Each structure stands twice: as C-alpha cells, then as structure tokens.
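Lab notebook page, bench 4
Experiment: in silico fold of construct C2
Operator: M.H.
Input chain length: 405 residues
Purpose: comparison with the prior construct
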Amino acid sequence: MPLISRRSSQLGTENAFVVLAEVSELQRQGKDIVSFCIGQPDFPTPRNICAAGIRAINDGKHGYTPSAGILELREAAANYLNRTRHLDFVAEDIVVAAGAKPFIMYSILAATDYGCDEEVIYPNPGFPIYESQIRACGAIPVPIHLRESRGFSFDSSELESKITEKTRLLILNSPQNPTGGIIPRQDMEAIAGILRRHPQVWVFADEVYSQLCYEGEFVSITSFPDLIERTIVCDGGSKTWAMTGWRLGFAASRALAPVFTRWVTNTESCASHISQWAAVEALNGEQDEPRQMRETFLERRDLIVGLLGEVPGVQCQMPGGAFYAWPNVTEACEMIGARDSEEFRQRLLNEAGVAVLADIHFGERVPNEGQHIRFSYAASNEAIRDGVARMAQFIEKNSKLKRRA
C-alpha cells in the first residue's frame, strides 16, 4: 500500500467529537450518560432563520454562489460587524465559508509560507484546531499560556517574549474556548502596543462568542483603528444563532478578502446557498430568540459555577463568556488517586456517567497550573444539577483522603 503523508498521519483532531463518539457508544449499550462534552447550543435554530432557509429552498436557491458569498449576506455581515464593533467594513471586505473554522486554515496559509519555519502564536489552552492547522500548514506553533490567576488571559510581557522575526500571525480568541475567559480592555491595550512594535505580524481575531459576554465588555482588537488593516475578524452563525449544522461563517479583512476568496474557490467552492440566505435573516432579522438563549446561558453559568463550588476538591472561576466552565480539579484528582485530569475524566465517564473533556484535549497542560476539565453548560438545568451531583458523589465515594481519615 502507498504511504500516507506525514502531514495527514499527524493531523490533530477536535477531541469533543472523539469523546462524543465514546458517549454515543456507551448510550448505545444502554448506559445513562449526562454529557457536557460538545460545544454547541442545545436550542433549535430560531424560527425566523429556519423559515428563511425553507424559503430559499422553495425559491430555487440551490446552485453555486460566488465563492465569496452572495452580496446580500456580505452586506449583512459587514453591517453586523460595524454595529457590534463600531467599524466601517463594506461587502467587499467580507468572505463567507462553510463555518468559521475554514478561516483558521486560510489565515495561516495567507500569513505563512510552507518550509520557512515561520511562527504562529496561539492561546493555550485553546481550540485544538489552532495548533493542528498551524502544523498542517507547515508553520511553527508557539503557545502562549492562559493563566488562572489572570482570569485565563495571558501576560502581555510573555507575548512580547514570544514574538521573533519569524512570527507571522497571532491568534486571539475572546470570549474563549475552553475557559470562558475574556481578554479585558487593559490587556487588549497592552497587546495592541506590542503589535505596533512588530508590524510583520497579522492578527486572527476569533470572535465567534462575541455576543455571549456576561462579565465586562467585549473588546475586539479592532478597537484600535491602526490595527484593523492587519486584523482578520472571524465570526459566524453557530454560537449566537444556534446554527452549528448550517455551516456558515464569515471573515472580514480588506487586505485578505481576495486571498480568502481564492482559497474558498480552491477548497469548498462556496458555502451552502440555502444556509447563506438563512444567515441573512440571522443577521438582519429579529433577535428575540438569540437574546433569550443568551439569558438562559447566563442563568446556567451561575447555576453550574455555584454547584461546582460545593464539590469536594473542585474550584471554579466564574467564566466571563461563551458557554464553558473550566474547573480546577487538582485536589479532586489527589482525593481519588487519579494521576491527572484525563484519568479523572475517563473514570467520571465510566463510573459516574458524566461526560466532560480534559485540559489535554485543548493543548499541552500549562506548567504549574494544575489539572482542569471543561464543562459545556449548553445543557438543561436538570442535566447540570444531575451531572454535578453525580460528580460530587463520585469524588466522595472514591476519596482516598476520606478513607485514610
């Protein structure tokens, strides 16, 4: 058999889907599992958006579109970014793709050349596709650690130390997956000051959770006008409008829109024509259901953090946005004799029927930061209460410290 390329054999994955497969197999076997592993809203897509998709089907919107997307959606996306971030994009600055995820790859490909040892700085812990695509595109991944003591932001002086003459791209994600952390304004100002000293660095601003902020303001790097020209702003329908399966995202960059358009032509041709018309309604239509979703997420956040705070051996900071909690389970691991968060996760799933993700699913474990797991609280209040109660019982039942006492 011919060999498989090293690039393909070493390609990373998104472990939420790996754990989801484990959960599905256990459920198929009849096991009762409470799952917090997948990062998608558990709400149906708002009715007005679904109606727009049905209209598109009935109106014959079935064919190819321009690779950059239909004009109506590019205009709607520009207007949305302008009113939520006080910018002045126009339709020509916008490119549409099958989800926001492709723009990670397109941005790395646009900023780096294969085999030149050029570097991309990305947050750790972070969305695992960042590191995977950096490596696949032939660039050098350079993690910058998010620290619990800083509310899961990073130290700007550490960023300064990471930038070299080989640095070509900085990835920012706020609100953040997996921690729910938000980069505060003072930190964003410090980042902007550093970037001004390094004009060779592009910025990929992953802002798909921008409308799910609960503590403090959402601050985009585009708040600093002199950085807009080298910033790629990425957003999409999946999180704000519960459109994960519609596969619809968009990016804004005056300089790189033509480059992204060529990449779309070379890969996916265009996003789904039907989904594009649904997204026009998402951006332009009434927002009552998305607002209610946000309020529900806020209630769930307060519920799960409060409950986790009562679990033996667990400490959990209040996340500022998204729909993730990132509790520290270092003491809980010691209590039950688990060597790390991954063993804790596996035992929690198989012994208590609670599915979460471990910190190592989001990059290398940050030195001296302990052990963490991720809960996606895109789940009902009943599931949250049940899942956290099972976790508490699991720790108490297996606590070696308790038995020694």
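Observations: The radius of gyration is 21 Å. The chain has two domains: 6-31+289-404, 61-284.
Next step: discuss at group meeting.
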